[in-house]
Every structure is written in C-alpha cells, then in structure tokens.
Design goal:
Blueprint (H helix, E strand, L loop, with lengths): L7 E5 L3 H13 L3 E5 L2 H11 L3 E4 L8 H10 L8 E5 L4 H9 L4 E4 L5 H14 L1
Parallel strand pairs: 1-2, 1-3, 3-4, 4-5
Helix pairs in contact: 2-3
Length: about 130
C-alpha cells in the first residue's frame, strides 16, 4: 500500500449518532470510513469495501456482533481483517467470547473517548 492511500475503516453500528460521530472523528484523523447500520449489511460491506480494520458493535438487529464475527472469520476474502469490538456489554463472558473469535481489542463505549478509540485503532494497525 502506498503512503498516499488512506487506511479504510468499516464501522458496523446500529446507533446512527454513535456511528456518525466516529465516522467524523476518524475521517478527520485521515481514515476512509464506511458505515453499516446492521450486521448483515456490515458483512456484505466488508466484502466490497475490504477495510483495513472493522469496528463492531455487539447488540444490533438482524445479526449480532458475534454472528458478524463468525461470518467474517468464515469468509476467506475478509477473515484476516482485524476487528475491534465497541460495545457497552462489559461482562467477562462477552469479552472472552470475542477473544476466542479473534478480536484485537474490546472497547467499552461508555468508558472511552473518541480520541482514545483512534489511538487504540492505530495501535492495532501498527501491530499488524
């Protein structure tokens, strides 16, 4: 990838306010950002957009975040894409399930600022 190309982020989040806020913040930080408002749309958009990283909510209509993760991991065209969970589900069982499914980070939305989210995304991207 050339230096001039923006890193691509897909946000799969059913709360439009949150999705738009992060889209704006990440765009200002130099990322190309696409949104998907539910899990089913998110999986399809991941295949066409081929993001460098996916921010994924858990509680969504149609497919929850865990079902989305399973679908991503089962599809060779996108199985390698790093995923960061952004949810307000803070139970240890959810974190463990996400880790088993290979997420790179698990962020509790209510406990972090948008700038901290950007820093965590950059850290995951730097780790490869």
């Amino acid at each position: 990838m050339s230096e001039g190309q923006k890193k691509k982020i897909l946000i799969i989040e059913d709360d439009r306010y949150i999705a738009k806020m992060y889209q704006t913040k990440l765009s200002l930080d130099g990322f190309e950002v696409e949104l998907a408002e539910n899990g089913a749309t998110g999986v399809e958009k991941a295949k066409s957009f081929l993001p460098d990283i996916i921010l994924l909510d858990i509680l969504m209509p149609e497919m929850d975040g865990f079902q989305v993760l399973e679908a991503i991991r089962a599809d060779d065209t996108i199985s390698f894409v790093p995923v960061i969970i952004m949810s307000n589900l803070a139970k240890e069982e959810h974190v463990k399930k996400a880790r088993v499914l290979g997420v790179k980070d698990y962020i509790i939305k209510s406990q972090i600022t948008p700038q901290e989210v950007v820093q965590r995304i950059k850290k995951v991207m730097a780790a490869g």
